[in-house]
């Protein structure tokens, strides 16, 4: 896999730059620019080298979603054009008239279902706009979509600057310093179970939080009331008694009447829903953080989107202030980090959510393989 920095002469070259601009938008405005800030050095590098930069990306999952709020964001700091449809003749004329250092953003590729279907002729059509392809969308590289795995079949292809860094930094988890603490939260246990099993072989302690812990409570025979648990039947019998696994020792619950309480996991009532970790859990976990030499975290401890974010924020702050090497990621996690304004206090903050998890599990991604 070659990196974009290795290309000798980029002057005048049409560079198809695949970014992951799938970022939170609220009221038509970019709400969290963490991912954009992380790829700005790549855009600046390509501009300085005199490339013509054609940015392609997706946003959201519906064909109706648009990158216009992201365009407005970019326009505040740089001159940037916009191509409404990657398949249109206008796209060709726009690109033909670009000068060295010019930048254009192409509208959400997922407006075409062929993107997700990894349609070969769609990939070829995208490729017609560039001389070379750069994947700077690590966070989407677990998807076998046209602009991730299809386009590299038609153009000389390179990894981006951040893409390379993501691989290097996340790979540190495979030969970690000990004690190594792995913290995993959020939901969708089914997609995270293999990674938990893998990390139990490498890490000294594995904290399972967020809604993932509910399945473990249930396996231990506790009542989880109305808490979110996996729809699929997952056999956790071999895991629940694993000494390396740490579960919350107290939880925040809300009942049907809206009353919020902190209690032990085995005290949850039928009309209660577990929404966060309790204070005792967080203090306990922070002790592990302070003893660790390496902390790897993905996912929140609570239902962050519904306002249950304080325990996660306290934990994140403790990781930032600890001496441990720290690698963290996941959409909600990076949102907390941005809110706290402490992006620079970690060894590495991954732009990946699902891609980070998939890389940690498989040590590669479809998007990486496509560049080889
Ligand atoms: C992300 O935001 O994590 C990636 O862009 C993946 O998005 P997707 O799950 O919609 O493919």
Please characterize this protein's 3D structure.
The chain is α/β, with parallel strands linked by helices. It has two domains: 4-159, Rossmann fold; 170-361, Rossmann fold (3-Layer(aba) Sandwich). The protein is 36% helix and 18% strand. It contains 15 helices and 17 strands. It has helices at 34-48, 68-75, 89-96, 113-116, 120-127, 146-150, 161-171, 189-202, 212-219, 237-240, 279-291, 310-321, 331-340, 354-362, 366-369, and strands spanning 14-19, 25-26, 29-30, 52-56, 81-83, 103-106, 132-136, 157-159, 180-184, 205-208, 245-246, 251-255, 260-263, 272-277, 294-298, 325-329, 348-349. Strands 5-6-4-1-7-8 form a six-stranded parallel beta sheet, with helices on both faces. Strand 2 (25-26) and strand 3 form a beta hairpin. Helix 8 packs across helix 14 (354-362), helix 11 (279-291) runs parallel beside helix 12 and helix 12 crosses helix 13. It is elongated. The protein starts with 13 loop residues before the first strand and ends with a helix. The mean pLDDT is 97. The structure holds 3-phosphoglyceric acid. Residues 20, 22, 61, 139-140, 143, 353-354 line the site of 3-phosphoglyceric acid. The site of 3-phosphoglyceric acid has 8 residues, from loops.
């Amino acid at each position: 896999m070659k990196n974009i920095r290795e290309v000798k002469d980029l002057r005048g070259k049409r560079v198809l730059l695949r970014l992951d601009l799938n970022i939170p938008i609220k009221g038509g405005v970019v709400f969290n620019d963490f991912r954009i800030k992380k790829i700005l050095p790549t855009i600046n590098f390509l501009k300085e080298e005199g490339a013509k930069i054609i940015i392609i990306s997706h946003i959201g999952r519906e064909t109706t979603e648009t990158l216009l709020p992201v365009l407005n964001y970019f326009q505040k700091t740089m001159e940037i054009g916009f191509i409404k449809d990657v398949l249109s003749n206008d796209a060709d004329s726009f690109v033909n008239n670009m000068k060295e250092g010019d930048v254009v953003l192409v509208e959400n590729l997922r407006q075409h279902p062929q993107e997700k279907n990894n349609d070969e002729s769609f990939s070829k059509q995208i490729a017609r706009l560039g001389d070379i392809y750069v994947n700077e969308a690590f966070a989407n590289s677990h998807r076998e979509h046209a602009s991730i795995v299809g386009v590299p079949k038609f153009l000389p292809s390179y990894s981006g600057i951040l893409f390379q860094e993501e691989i290097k930094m996340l790979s540190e988890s495979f030969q970690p310093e000990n004690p190594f603490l792995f913290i995993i939260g959020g939901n969708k246990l089914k997609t995270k179970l293999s990674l938990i099993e893998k990390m139990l072989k490498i890490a000294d302690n594995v904290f399972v939080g967020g809604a993932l812990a509910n399945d473990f409570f249930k396996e231990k025979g506790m009542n989880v009331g109305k808490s979110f648990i996996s729809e699929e039947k997952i056999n956790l019998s071999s895991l629940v008694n694993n000494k390396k696994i740490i579960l919350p020792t107290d939880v925040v619950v809300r009942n049907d009447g809206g009353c919020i309480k902190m209690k032990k996991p085995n005290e949850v009532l039928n009309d209660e829903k577990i929404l966060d970790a309790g204070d005792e859990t967080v203090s306990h976990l922070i002790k592990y953080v302070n003893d660790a030499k390496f902390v790897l975290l993905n996912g929140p401890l609570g239902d962050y989107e519904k306002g249950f974010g304080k325990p996660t924020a306290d934990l994140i702050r403790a990781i930032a202030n600890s001496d441990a090497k720290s690698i963290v990621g996941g959409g909600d996690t990076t949102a907390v980090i941005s809110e706290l304004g402490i992006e620079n206090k970690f060894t590495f903050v991954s732009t990946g959510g699902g891609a980070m998890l998939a890389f940690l599990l498989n040590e590669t991604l479809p998007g990486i393989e496509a560049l080889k």
